[in-house]
């Protein structure tokens, strides 16, 4: 079965979200030498919306995340959060503005415990001075205790197992558990927008369904907007309010999951079939 024939993950997206954009990319391009990794991209995410970015390998999806989070600077175009430009900000500054992310390859500190990894994510929220930290003032102790309570609260969002293992080194956790710790660490920064890069990669079916449930809860219970890169089309079709499709760095389609699912350009991009051959397209539609 091809990716484009995958069944939808159980559940349907919420009612369409309307309103002003939280994040907006306007005519954004990024070139590396003579190679255009992202070309003339327009993309937006509204508050409380789940938007998925899909496309074949090398389509430019992770480059888009790197542009949004300040790892790369656009060759041209504008990126705004709540109407204010974030172009030129470094990743820490983007994080302070309200955008947190996870990575396709999990980036945790293996020599630190589960709890310590989540505490690291709160570094932009701490206000104690260097001098206060040095002398362990009352304010510092109170701030540390509040940070610890917050970290445990975030771990509990994913169930009791991570709380029970908070003092274990993360390297001893399963892949799916480490992915949850990474998301908890991103949440520690109190973002308005969460960027998830392949959150179900490497997971079996049961783990994938559990991860999808967590993503839904992030929106429903925490009110987060989510921009998602995900190669499992069953996941994106079942969880997204809208889907943006990239191919060779350019947007080839955008719309509701059912619209994207039947788009000839999308089918061609995934299956290598010419969009000018409609008589062969039907057999490759997502069922």
UniProtKB/TrEMBL annotation:
Q: Which UniProt keywords apply?
A: ATP-binding, Nucleotide-binding, Transport
Oxidoreductase in keyword set: no
Which organism is the protein's source? Ktedonobacter racemifer DSM 44963
What name does UniProt use for this protein? ABC transporter related protein
Q: Does the keyword Transport apply?
A: yes
- What GO cellular component entries does it have? plasma membrane
- The ABC transporter domain extends over 23-273
Q: Which superkingdom?
A: Bacteria
A single GO molecular-function term is:
ATP binding
What is one Gene Ontology biological process annotated in the Swiss-Prot or TrEMBL record? L-valine import across plasma membrane
């Amino acid at each position: 079965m091809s990716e484009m024939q995958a069944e939808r993950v159980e559940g349907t997206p919420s009612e369409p979200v309307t309103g002003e954009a939280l994040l907006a990319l306007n005519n954004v391009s990024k070139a590396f030498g003579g190679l255009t990794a992202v070309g003339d991209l327009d993309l937006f995410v509204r508050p409380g919306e789940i938007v998925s970015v899909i496309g074949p390998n090398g389509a430019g999806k992770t480059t888009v995340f790197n542009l949004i989070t300040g790892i790369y600077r656009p060759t041209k175009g504008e990126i705004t959060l709540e109407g204010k430009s974030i172009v030129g900000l470094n990743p820490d500054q983007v994080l302070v503005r309200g955008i947190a992310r996870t990575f396709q390859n999990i980036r945790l500190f293996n020599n630190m415990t589960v709890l310590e990894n989540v505490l690291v994510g709160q570094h932009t929220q701490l206000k104690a001075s260097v001098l206060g930290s040095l002398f362990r003032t009352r304010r510092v102790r109170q701030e540390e205790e509040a940070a610890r309570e917050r970290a445990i609260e975030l771990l509990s969002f994913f169930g009791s197992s991570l709380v029970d293992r908070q003092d274990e080194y993360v390297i001893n956790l399963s892949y799916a558990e480490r992915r949850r710790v990474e998301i908890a660490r991103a949440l520690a920064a109190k973002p308005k927008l969460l960027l998830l890069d392949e959150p179900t990669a490497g997971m079996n079916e049961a783990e994938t369904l559990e991860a999808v449930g967590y993503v839904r809860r992030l929106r429903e219970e925490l009110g987060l907007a989510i921009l998602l890169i995900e190669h499992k089309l069953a996941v994106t079709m079942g969880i997204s309010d809208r889907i943006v499709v990239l191919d060779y760095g350019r947007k080839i389609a955008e719309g509701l999951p059912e619209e994207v699912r039947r788009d000839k350009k999308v089918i061609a991009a995934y299956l290598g079939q010419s969009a000018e051959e409609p008589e062969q397209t039907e057999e490759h539609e997502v069922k």
